[in-house]
Amino acid sequence: MINHLWKISIWLWVAAPILGFWSGVNPRISQIRWWMLASILVIGFALTQPVRRQLSRIFGFLLLAFLGIFFIHFLGATPAEEFEKGGVWVASKMASAWISQSVIILTAAALISERGKFVWILRAVLGCGILQVLIMVLQAFNISVPWPSAGPGPCGTLVKRAALSIFLGSVSIWTTGKKAWFFAIASAISGSFAGSIPAFFRLLYRHLANPMVLAMSLPIALLLGSFSYTRVSDRVDVWGNAVSFFSQSWLTGRGFFPLPGSFREDGGGTGFGLALFSDYHSTWLDWIVRTGLIGILILGAGLFWMFSQVKDGASWRKWSFLMFLWAGTFQSAEAFPVMILLALCFMIGLNYQKGSGNVSKV
Question: What pLDDT was estimated at residue 145?
């Protein structure tokens, strides 16, 4: 009985930041809150389970890194304009909230990696992917669903199309055959190319030498390029702001205050606007401006570890790493908790699948 509950808790841990919903609460907050509760459930059941494999040191490294960032900002690494408003106390509250949720969720991921089975995660991800497509169909026919939607077009349960595209694109990369094509197409139908481009490239790159495939791919590539140029150009000025503000607090970063010169959360038509939510539409720039040089060193070490795990490994690792870099460049993990979930699932898979060539047999 306890073993079945352990498996179910892992499924809930995967589903929480994807399906998490709380009426009247900003979706980003409700997803994180449900994920924290699911993480506590996982930790409780995990401590009843035997150790199955050696845990990668990367999880301990990240916990220590989080602790270092917390102390930097808790002890007063506060921007001057915020300090004048009593920002030290605000910083301490923000830092405490951040480290609490980060430690709980990361500890759950570490215990899953050490005591769970990666195939359970894959089945949960696949199930959530199928559910997203079903909800997309309902949204296409204007059938009401409980989850809010920001803007036109289907977005599943993830509020925004970019988050849906990244999730379905990742599901495509973690599957093969018809399932991979199905989820890649669904990712593109979302109307965002944040996740569909890596997914399609993975499926087509072996065939690009074929003249027929190349002839069909070029017009699509030109269309995607012209469409993406408009979206990327909107980010250029904001990314310039990020570079400018990084130079002002380059050592410790800005901490957990709203990012200056960034995109601000307006609720996207959901009615859940919150001024404190801001990002540069780039995970890497968000992290660098918030944590400064110290954060760059932590990020560099983490990316080096990932690269060392994927460079000689199975193909799913390489394509997942490409998705990780691509999505992190053009979207913010602060805005989309599902991106953090996918990154943690990837880390669990790297720890679990040493020497294994296929993760898609679910």
Answer: 85
